[in-house]
Input
Amino acid sequence: MSEPVISLRGVRAELGSRPVLRGIDLTVHGGEVVALLGANGSGKSTAVRTVIGQVPVAAGEVELFGTPRARFRDWRRVGYVPQRTTAAGGVPASVTEVVSSGRLSRARFGLLRKADHEAVRQALTLVGMADRAKDSVNALSGGQHQRVLIARALASEPDLLIMDEPMAGVDLASQEVLAGTLREQVGKGTTVLLVLHELGPLEPLIDRAVVLRDGCVVHDGPPPKAVGQHALPGHDHVHPHEAADAAPIRTGLLS
Ligand SMILES: Nc1ncnc2c1ncn2[C@@H]1O[C@H](COP(=O)(O)OP(=O)(O)OP(=O)(O)O)[C@@H](O)[C@H]1O
Output
């Protein structure tokens, strides 16, 4: 198997003095597509945010491309799509401006050259937003907004793509475009770590699933077949043939 692109070992993190990650191990190898699953509040976003340095680790080790994160400088190799907020942010930026900001890590002295503008155009074409290049991002639907954020991450032609709930609040048409875009990236050998609630249309692309519960890894292996709250191992439910006061049976990973 290829070298690890992401490696978390025994990672602990706290937010506001509350332990959120309680010693997690997570390895993503080159070319792999790994889904990070788990219930709300299980620590998925916090885990990916430790990878990109937005959340400090209290203990353990994080490495990117074999380099301890604190010494990692090659950020142009990493494309990050944060969890989408419902508000567009009110920043009066055009679609092109937002996507161009994702190219700055590749631009010398912060100046975009012809090849950089071309990469921006290409990223917009990939997500089917080339015709909206001049529009304000505030004029876009949620799904279109998400496509722009993904184009921003793709503009630096990253080797590693980290996406936090890329399908959340995204209309079906945009979901299909995003799945197609991702398929293309995976075909090129891009390594992908996705935070997901449900595998949904991305299921065929996923090599491995890591499931978190209460800040711990409770599953690391093949993706669960159908991932809804009910299908996920860890979902609590009481079987109808049992006494009404029976304790819920833990069958799933998602509770
Ligand atoms: N800034 C913060 N300060 C204190 N606690 C926080 C902060 N951000 C998140 N938390 C808490 O940390 C826990 C893990 O949050 P995290 O966002 O990593 O979970 P998640 O699995 O990504 O959940 P979701 O699916 O809802 O996005 C939650 O209980 C959350 O309330």
Summary: Helices lie at 44-51, 95-101, 114-126, 142-154, 172-187. The first helix runs from residue 44 to 51. The domain at 4-223 is CATH 3.40.50.300 (Rossmann fold). The two ends are 32 Å apart (CA to CA).
